[in-house]
Amino acid sequence: MDGKVVVITSGKGGVGKTTVTASLGAALALQGKRVAVVDMDIGLRNLDVVMGLENRIIFNVVDVVQGKCKLKQALIKDRRINNLYLIPASQSDEKNVIQPENMKWLCKRLKKEFDFTLLDCPAGIEQGFKNSIEAADDAIVVCMPEISSVRDADRVIGLLYSRSIEPKLVVNRIVPKMVERGDMLSHQDVVDVLSIDLIGLVESDESVVVSTNTGLPIVMQKESKAGRAFNQIAMRMNGHPDLPVEDPMAPKSFWKKLGGRIGRKNRMQS
Amino acid sequence: MMMFNTLLKKLMNRGEDSRQVAKKRLKFALVYDKLEIKEEMLEDLQKDLIDVISRYFEIDRQQMSLDIERSEDSSALIMNTPILAARHKKPREDARA
């Protein structure tokens, strides 16, 4: 049976698409699936460094669609995680060297070999976006709890619907403390406005920066909150769609909260 | 101190923290975005409207205007046209002729 092609997109840049793609790719592979991740950001590749595979690039996605190499040659195998492969973007070409029909051809071939093909879509809604959604079966929209990000997500969701794709939502970089204080949109606010199904909530987590620094997948760090969230999203993609989404701002019990307040006041008085 | 300020802020202007402001602004922005209409579409609509109205009235085509006006919670299509005369023929016959 053919695998699934899932595009990870957001409209706005800098909301964590690449981290989400790398993390979900690693998580799905660790769960025993065969996974290919493709960097679609021609000219500005980044998925390779986030995955720690930057020094093993020989061929890229443009080489594959132009027939300069075989598909197998462009697939970089992750040595730490079985069954995880990356096709990097080209760093020197223009965005429009790839056309939607090229992607159809490529994804058709990848689907034969892999259970999941994740496409890391570039920011914006131009050529790179069009190429990425052309061959996608499913989509994950990544958005931060912030006005400009949600607005762009809404636009992208509309474009996906017009291609008959029903996207799922990841709300990324939630700061529960700010939400509680009333200084950040809650994930519920975001879901209300966008009215699409949620597939995961990811707390803002410093260990993501550390993991990007080192090129080690965040999902392999057991104590990381973000890593845990990504593992759960991968589970939902991988046959457990009803796994409940944990609320990162789960209210503390009344007594604990009161205790915390008194504790803090005392500290300040002393 | 921080805690106290936050608490005070919440008591002073109940329900208007920056989160709620953000949500309101976001909702407005999305409604406005969806109402954005291409100039050509408005021109096409104007042509169609002129055709329909001309079956019933003689109008001054040059003076006709069609605009979208937006206020905070609604938007309206505003058409303005001077009528020169009513047509007294039955409109259906007129349309067939």
Task: Write up what this structure looks like.
The complex is a heterodimer of chains A (270) and B (97). Chain A has helices at 17-30, 47-50, 61-65, 71-74, 100-113, 127-134, 147-161, 176-181, 187-194, 206-214, 225-237, 254-269; strands at 4-9, 35-39, 76-77, 84-87, 116-120, 138-143, 168-174, 198-203. Chain A is an alpha/beta fold and 270 residues long. Chain A has one domain: Rossmann fold (3-Layer(aba) Sandwich). In chain A, strands 3-4-2-5-1-6-7-8 form an eight-stranded mixed beta sheet, with helices on both faces. Chain A is globular, with a radius of gyration of 19 Å. Chain B is of the alpha+beta class. Chain B folds into two domains: 1-36; 37-97. Chain B has four helices and four strands, in the order αααββββα. Chain B has helices at 2-12, 18-35, 39-56, 91-96; strands at 57-59, 65-70, 75-80, 83-86. Chain B has a two-stranded antiparallel ribbon. Chain B has a two-stranded antiparallel sheet with strand order 2-3. Chain B is rod-shaped, with a radius of gyration of 24 Å. In chain B, 1% of the residues are buried. The model of chain B has no long low-confidence stretch (mean pLDDT 78). At the A-B interface, α7, α9 and α12 of A face α1 and α2 of B.
DSSP strand tally of chain A: 8
Distance between the termini of chain A: 67 Å
Mean pLDDT of chain B: 78
Largest interface: A-B, 20 and 16 residues
Strand content of chain A: 15-25%
As for the number of domains of chain A, it is 1
How many strands, which pairing sense, and closed or not: the largest β-sheet of chain B?
A: 2 strands, antiparallel
